[in-house]
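Format notes (please read before filing issues)

Several people have asked whether sequences and C-alpha cells are stored in separate files. They are not. Every record keeps both together, in the order shown below: the sequence lines, then the C-alpha cell lines. Line labels are part of the format and must not be stripped during preprocessing.
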Amino acid sequence: MSGPVLLVGCGKMGGAMLEGWLARSMLAQGAHLVEPSDAAVAGFRGRSGVTIHRRIEDLPRDLAPEIVVLAVKPQTMDAVLPGLARFRAATFLSIAAGKRIEGLSGALGGAAVVRSMPNTPSAVGRGMTVAVAGPGVSETAKKRCDELLSAVGEVAWVEDEALIDPVTAVSGGGPAYVFLLIEALAAAGEKAGLPADLAMRLARVTVSGSGELARLSPEPAAQLRRNVTSPGGTTLEALKVLMAEDGIQPIFDRAIAEATRRAKELGQ
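Then the structure lines:
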C-alpha cells in the first residue's frame, strides 16, 4: 500500500465494507472516513486506524490516499465530487448505482475510476460485486480494489461497462427478488392451511438453506433442482406449474429486462 483508504459515505454498504476491512486487518495505512451522521459512525469511533471527519473540507491538506471509495448515494454524488478532485492522483472506487466512469472521472479532473455494483448481502459478508476498471487504472490499483471489495463477498470483473446495467438488474436487485420469493412461498403455504408464523419460518429457512447449498455444492443449479424432484412426486407437480411456458422464466425475463432498461436510463 502506498497510502490510506479514504471512504466517503458510511451508510449500510460503506459501513459493511469498512467493517470487513477492519475484521481482515486490511488497513495497514489506516482509513479516513467522511460521514456527517453521528449515528452512522458510532460503531467506528475509537477503532484503531480509523479517523472520522464530518466534512470533506475537514480532511488534512496533506492527505494522499491510495484508494478513494465513493459510497454516497447517487443523488448526492455530484455535490461531493468537486471537493475530492484534489485527490485525483488516487484511484477512485465507486459503488454508486447509475454513475458512469466517464462522468465520475471528468468531475474528478481525469482521475482513474473503478465502477462497481455490490449488493446488500455484503452486510453479512455474502455479497456479490461486479466491477469494471476505467482508463488509467493500474493493475496494482485494480488488485487493491479487488481486495477491498472481496472483504464483503465474491467479486467478478468485466471489460465492458455496459454490462453493469444487467448486473444491476440481476445481482444488484436480486436480493429483493429472493425476499419476494420468501413472501410468496409463505403466503402460498398459509393458503394451504399452515399457520402464518410457521409458513414464514419454513419459507425463510428453506430459501436461506437452499442458497447455502447452492453456494457450497459443485453441482449446477439445474442438477440441484433435479436432486429434489422425485418422479411422480409432489415437487414435480409444482414444477410443472413453475416451469410452464407462462411460468416463472418469462416473468423473470421481463423483470430483468425492465430493470436493465431503468438502469440504462439512470446512467444517462
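For reference, the curators noted about this record: The chain has eleven helices and eight strands. The mean pLDDT is 95.
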